[in-house]
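Replying to the earlier thread about multi-chain prediction with a worked example.

Input:
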Amino acid sequence: MTTPTTKGGFLAVFFSTFYSKRAKPLIHFLSMLIMTFIGLLMLTFVIGRMMPTDPVIAVIGDKAPEELYEKTYKEMGLDKPIVVQFVYYLGGVLQGDLGTSVRTANLVTEDILNYFPATLELATLATIFGVLLGVPIGVLAAVKQNKWPDYLVRFFGLIGHSAPIFWLAMMGIVLFYQHLDWVAAPEGRLSVMYEYTLPKVTNMVLIDTMLAGDWDAFKDAFAHIILPASLLSYYSIAYLSRMTRSFMLDQLKQEYVITARVKGVSETAIIWRHALGNAWVPLITVIALTYATLLEGSVLTEIVFSWPGLGRYITDGLLAADMNAVLGGTIVVGLVFILLNLTSDLLYKVFDPRAR
Amino acid sequence: MTELKSWLLAENPDSRAQASLGRAYLGWRRFFCNPLAMIGFVIVTALLLMAIFAPYIAPEGITSGLTGAELKEHRFQPPSAEHWFGTDGQANDIFSRIVMGSRITLIIVGIVIFTAPILGFIIGTVSGYFGGWIDVVLMRITDVFLAFPKLVLALALAAALGRGLESAIFAIAITSWPAYARLARAETLTIRKTDYLAAARLQGAGHWRLISGHIMPLCLSSLIVRVTLDMAGIILTAAGLGFLGLGAQPPTPEWGAMIAEGRDYILSYWWLATFPGLAIFVVALGFNFLGDGLRDVLDPKSGGQH
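Result:
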């Protein structure tokens, strides 16, 4: 940093401190986060206003007298300019106020706290499966480039990109539940006998059963989650293996690999330590993106498995014309998605010195 | 035949037409050597033919029109010679409904690929060409849209606009343009500073002529590849919205909605959901294969790499 000599030097110092190379990705991250989130809220606000139903009647009912209507209309701020209404809405959301759900009669925020852990659990397990399988498969495909394992991985990936997940889920139920009887019935997260005895701590059943030390319940929970999580992970495996393959191909072409070979480093060490070690940098960002996509993809999976997650909450809200629930759910999924998206961007810049 | 071939592959073509025909011929040959691309081509052509001649192919109508005792007798029939894919709860022939439904799938894909990529294309090339604050503003808007969860947003939009095919199409189109804008901008940036563009500018070409006549045609091939690869995604999103009951409404034979109808009976009458799903799968696979093959032909830079 240079010492300012001219007028207005203070501003220059101020900005250069904040805009130093190290802070730049963080500043970009924060500004993008704020902008995208406000953009999301603008959209949900507009969607909420597009509804054909009268918001006042939704609150007081259509039998209410004229004066009450007028009063509520003013109380809800509907006589104010649209920009002011948006600011009110923004303020409400930032304080965690997403309105009340017509269907469950609870605060939407409370409902979401109940439903979200189920989605999180499903998507997290699917991501773990995806990384554990997708990365080694991708490495194998890169090492055996243009040989049959490579073609097999590509083919497997294309199939993963072509099957509708809700259909795959139903086929999975027919095969693994009805015919093979390997997994539990596709009806929620636990069998009824454990449902009400389990103390709710994190609201993620695998963790809660473990914390309670109830291993029978844990087994039951596992039998419920394994099929939806595996099906969901198929997509992340397909995507991660393809990306790993392409990153590994880039690395294996580098000169340091040749140097290592010349020095007599074993091929295993070159592939798994040297090349994969460097491929992890872009891979982390891809994993974060996959996680975001899986959170979204679980919406359709949850419907088929009667999984009490956010996707189910949103769609149940849709069918009941419960707009607060739908928009609240959209905001939460959107926020998590945006956060993961931008975090992957940030991680890339932090881990890869060239991107700074 | 050999004469035509040597004319097409001449090292010093006499005219521009000969040169471009020669290139097209080479691309065509590469495309046809790729078995997966050929499979994709056949599937997509079959889908087109099926949609065009749907009323002649389908043995029965969309609905059976049966009621009472007749309905009870003919519903939930397993696949047989008479009903290839069985019948559903309204005694409708599932095979006929799938054939007729191909039209809906094509309508959705057709409208989306003629709106979203064009919008994204214009925004991207303008943004990349002019640079400066126009670029900053347009790209920030694009980033904001890009960071949204597509399906959930389409869900909320379709819910607000009311259930129906139009809302589903609009929701998919409005959530899919940003990727094309990004692509078009990146391509524009690489050719913005080239000499031939400077030459065209010196000859007095205006901004719009440069963009529409010199930049857009060069971005087109990568855009086509991208659109073909995205078609599978569009079909899957549309089917997802249909499955959730937000797309086309019954008795319209939309494939996703048909799977939703079969969901309640999946353990007793498996064919209700299986065949529409298979149709979606085959068509999406066809578009994916086709897109993969097209990428190898039109976009040699990334061929076989990803």
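Residues 1-6 of chain A have pLDDT under 50 and may be disordered.

Feel free to reuse this layout for your own posts.
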